[in-house]
Amino acid sequence: MEERGVPAMGRTLFLPLLWIAMLTSAARVVQCLPYDYSSSSECLPEPLEPQYGGGILRNANFSAGLQGWSAFGYGAVEEGLSATGNGYGVARNRTRPYQSVSQKVYLQNDTHYTLSAWLQVSNGSADVRAVVKTDGEFIHAGAVEARSGCWSILKGGLTAPASGAAELYFESNATVDIWVDSVSLQPFSREEWAAHHHAAIKSARKKTVRLRARDSAGKPVPGAQVRVEHVRSGFPLGSAMSAEILQSPAYQRWFTSRFTVTTFENEMKWYSTERVQGREDYSVPDAMLRFAKSHGIAVRGHNVFWDQPSQQPAWVRSLSQRQLQQATARRIRSVMSRYAGQVIAWDVVNENLHFQFFEDKFGWDASAEFYRRAHQMDGQALMSMNEYNTLEWPGDTLAGPSKYLGKLFQIKKFPGNANDARMAIGLEGHFSVPSIPYIRAALDTMSKANAPIWLTEIDVAPGPNQAHYLEQILREVYAHPAVHGIILWTARHPQGCYVMCLTDDNFRNLPTGDVVDKLIAEWKTHSLAGVADADGYYEAELFHGDYKVTVSHPVANSTVVQSLSIDRETDTDSEYTIHV
Ligand SMILES: *[C@@H]1O[C@H](CO)[C@@H](O)[C@H](O)[C@H]1NC(C)=O
Ligand SMILES: *[C@@H]1O[C@H](CO)[C@@H](O)[C@H](O)[C@H]1NC(C)=O
Ligand SMILES: *[C@@H]1O[C@H](CO)[C@@H](O)[C@H](O)[C@H]1NC(C)=O
Ligand SMILES: *[C@@H]1O[C@H](CO)[C@@H](O)[C@H](O)[C@H]1NC(C)=O
Ligand SMILES: *[C@@H]1O[C@H](CO)[C@@H](O)[C@H](O)[C@H]1NC(C)=O
Ligand SMILES: *[C@@H]1O[C@H](CO)[C@@H](O)[C@H](O)[C@H]1NC(C)=O
User: Fold this and answer.
1) Predicted TM-score (pTM) of this structure
2) Distance in Å, CA 45 to ligand 5 centroid
């Protein structure tokens, strides 16, 4: 990798630079700008300093007034000054959504840009979106619900579709003033981006383990022969499954040889288990759960309720308020008592950012109430939200990171939840064309809730780049330290899949399946063999997972086989003693 062409002004601000050796060219040491994962879920009295000193932006913190900034869309901008003397830009007297503070930049083709900006509005709260206008395109780079009286971070990004002049600006449908400060637009080459993955995987998915061979008297055994074999991956990677798996040995073989976690595509949903009011039938999900258990495959409970009106059982739509209350109470008790302790997570109210069937019936805190009840029913499982477009569409203001976290905090704060409901973040991931820098930036903000993040339904719309996009997305989310598991939305039916299949009818890989198999192989430690040093130590960098360790004494004829589990919870510098 070549040294990056950092503008001279910015260079001094980029210290300290990390030296990262790329695996692919071990002999060459390359200079890479590390990625700044920081973000915030809070609204702060003063904005923080711009990331990367502003990157390619000039006067990123408005310390030189409005220099470098201008009005976009025949708007009016002026300088604002806080009580503590912090200057910022203000878009005033706005009558059009796009009227705001803007700066002209020059973008390099095929380069990833990470964007961050601190925003405030003059009254109430308003959705504000960041837009980059290039020659012929308006690229949405992220959004935030900005408030008055404090500063919120908008973190996002884009990949430049061509080299050329562009303009960064902000837009809002509310006619409030928009305040802007501490903006940053930082380019990263593909090589740098991959180096970030490499560094993050090393710290979030692997551990350096020191095995020490000792004899029965406790003395180190130099020269002991050590063999480490991968048994099972520690990172939950899975696929949705359909009831067809119960009848198909080929489907079963394909699934169980790859995946350690699953979601039933539709079989546990209310419309499946109680198609006719009062006649519950759990025979299919029961059988699927038995199958999953018998192969050590963990199951996400999907879902207790779904906030989309069109996804209710047909009979539910005509119930009175009182009848609906009784029906929902029965539903949550029925499905959760049946599977409590047997699933690792529950999607309690699916898609409650885009839809509000239950909020419309029961009031604004309907979801929070269901999560409270769910937590009582199953104290072990994670209680997850599950939503689309948080990572897929930077422009969807209904489900952006700030909206998602707002709902999550509302549920956590609800009386009775007392912050002890084990909340989790489910991000579906139904992509068409992914914005890779945006995905990472949105995950940065989502990670500030300190709740485990799962990708729950990944697929990519058909097209010539489907497999390529899938690979980029999987690499991005796997490498993000806040992500705890990934499930692909690739349940197979004789007639195909929801949007994306991994195989054909005979369970032979499609290009998407090849991508998944390649990554499964890449994300596990292949068998290692070596000899302990003079102090009996053998050191290895291992992916999280279960291993079989075989140690042989070099002189005495004795061999010991031991199992070893490496996970993200246990201490970093792990040392294990093996008596041989
Ligand atoms: C703002 O940016 C300038 C130039 O990058 C820097 O010297 C200054 O320390 C920054 N912070 C403030 C609060 O002005
Ligand atoms: C906004 O409108 C007010 C009232 O017309 C005017 O006094 C002020 O100068 C305008 N601000 C800007 C920045 O144009
Ligand atoms: C602020 O917004 C509220 C409603 O959200 C509105 O009633 C009020 O007039 C607004 N104030 C100003 C100064 O625009
Ligand atoms: C931008 O870069 C990509 C990838 O290298 C290339 O395929 C594309 O043709 C370039 N576009 C322009 C407008 O130069
Ligand atoms: C403004 O409103 C339009 C029409 O409802 C919508 O499509 C767009 O997303 C909104 N923009 C923002 C920034 O909220
Ligand atoms: C080592 O022990 C095994 C059984 O414990 C035996 O089969 C083997 O022949 C022995 N080898 C030597 C070199 O003593």
Assistant:
1) 0.93
2) 27
